[in-house]
Amino acid sequence: MRQRLKEESVLFISILKWFVIATAIGSVVGFSTTFFLKSLEWGIKSAGRFNYYYLLLPLALPLSAIIVKYLAPEAEGHGTEKVIEAVHKRAGKINPLVIPVKLVATVITIASGGSAGKEGPCAQIGAGFSSVFAGIFRFNDRDRRKLVICGISAGFASVFGTPIAGAIFGVEVLFVGNILYDVLLPSFIAGITSYQVSAAFGIQYFYHEINFVPVFKESFFMMVVLSGVFFGMCSFLLIEALVYAKKFYENAKGSPVLKNFLAGVILASISVLTAGRYLGLGLDSIENMLEGGTALWQDFAMKIFYTATTLNFGGSGGIVTPIFFIGASAGSVFARLFHMDPSTFAAIGFVALLGGAANTPIAASIMAVELFGTAIAPYATVACVISYLMTGHRSVYPSQVLSINKSSSVKSELGREMDDISTEIYPETDWLSTVLFKYARALRRFFWRKKP
To answer: Residue 419 gets which letter from DSSP?
Structure first.
């Protein structure tokens, strides 16, 4: 009995400790996120006064790259990826210069029309403050990692107004197939606190409850399953585009400044022809699609191209906001193709692409509840999980560590980062799998012979 009382006392003290620490981290991250979002809003409005503001891209991309390279190389890329890398490789230690450098480079990129998001910088800024906090109070490596994860959760929660999904995202995004339960409590506290602080400072959040009547039909459910497969393929295209753009940048001849300048010229030139449809955050287009507006057939592919080019040719910013655009537009196209409600499938695509591309199906499913209401959530969850499986063993965050194979038919070495994984195929031997594999091979041979 005495031993049990000691155990409960220790657990109570631990809860109290992390309540205090996570509340402090959430408050700091909420304030810093607010400052970043207001700075970004000011930058976008200032640039938007000029009709052809995206003509600044040839200058903005090299400038952003130079600032990052010489002041804080850790701020390169889309934010969250670098935080994941810091947690796995450096016990969560982050250079404090990352905070102002990431803020300035991202504002320059997005305000000039670069296709990037705002959550990556918020996660990196939040994680940076958490790392500084851990250093000041001399936390050990284990607790520093926890604090940095809280920073990711708080940044995600305060930028999108989804405290629960943000908390889950922080503990789910580090490993594929594993959730860090020991960080759940501080992540929830930090996420909720950060969200409340940002809301108190006037940050407006997007909520759009889908006008969806939950009448279950087998045909509709099959369309949801099929859409999950489609969104998984879109996630695959996005990840491969990011990988290809990075390799192209590394292999292309010329100085980095010249390559970034030419990429900016290409994006600005295309934007003249597309009326700037794929520039920046694309929030107006996302909202229009969620309200039932139809996307163009090429929208999701063009946004993938813009995003891969921006982030690999000097631009700074997140990846999740472009994922939302790609998912919503892909869902709208899918709905048009099968004569379904575009608003419903735009919402499903919005979260399903996040579940697949980032390997975070649980956070994406919870986000569906927080943003679109409970009626559509069960269907969105199915699509999120299918998209996650269809994406395979790849990710927009290459530093994620694989904890479980997505299928018993696909074997990979666990404990390795996603960009360092090779897979081997071992088809299932049960009768149903055997029949399905035979039909799949027959269909492949049939369509291959039909090619001219």
So the answer is: G
| Residue 303 structure tokens | 């946004």
Ranges 30-44, 78-92, 227-241, 258-272: which has the least confidence: 78-92
* DSSP tag of 404: S
The Cα 246–Cα 240 span in angstroms is 10
DSSP 64: H
Two tokens, residue 284: 């107006």
In contact, 150 and 190? CB cutoff 8 Å: yes
Residue 188 and residue 163: Cα distance in Å, rounded? 7
DSSP states of 26-52: HHHHHHHHHHHHHHHHHHHHHHHTSTT
Q: Residue 406: which residues within 8 A CB-CB, separation 6 or more?
A: 177, 388, 389, 392, 393
Candidates 247, 399, 233, 394; CA nearest to 312 is 247
Give the sign of the dihedral formed by CA 128, CA 134, CA 140, CA 143.
negative
Per-residue pLDDT tens for 366-421? 999 999 988 888 999 999 999 999 998 889 998 898 888 887 777 777 878 887 77
| E strand or H helix at 411 | strand 410-412
Give Dmax (Cα) for the chain.
80
DSSP 316-356: --BSHHHHHHHHHHHHHHHHHHTT--HHHHHHHHHHHHHHH
Distance of CA 350 to the CA centre of its chain: 11
- Residue 343 CA, chain-centre distance (Å), reads 21
Cα angle, residue 328 at apex, residues 322 and 333 outer, rounded to 5°: 125
Instruction: Characterize 408-420 residue by residue with b for buried, 16 or more Cβ atoms within 10 angstroms of its Cβ, and e for exposed.
Output: eeeebeeeebbee
Top CATH class of 2-200 equals mainly alpha
The pair phi, psi for residue 402, each rounded to 5°, is -80, 125
Residue 417 is classified by DSSP as B
Instruction: Tell me the HSE value of 386 on the side-chain side, using a 13 A CA sphere.
Output: 21
**Axis-axis angle for helices 184-200, 2-48 (nearest 10):** 40
**Is the pTM higher than 0.90?**
yes
- Name every residue whose Cβ is closer than 8 Å to that of residue 17 and which is 6 or more positions away in sequence: none
- The 10s digit of each residue's pLDDT in 156-206 is 899 988 999 999 998 999 998 888 888 999 999 999 999 999 999 988 887
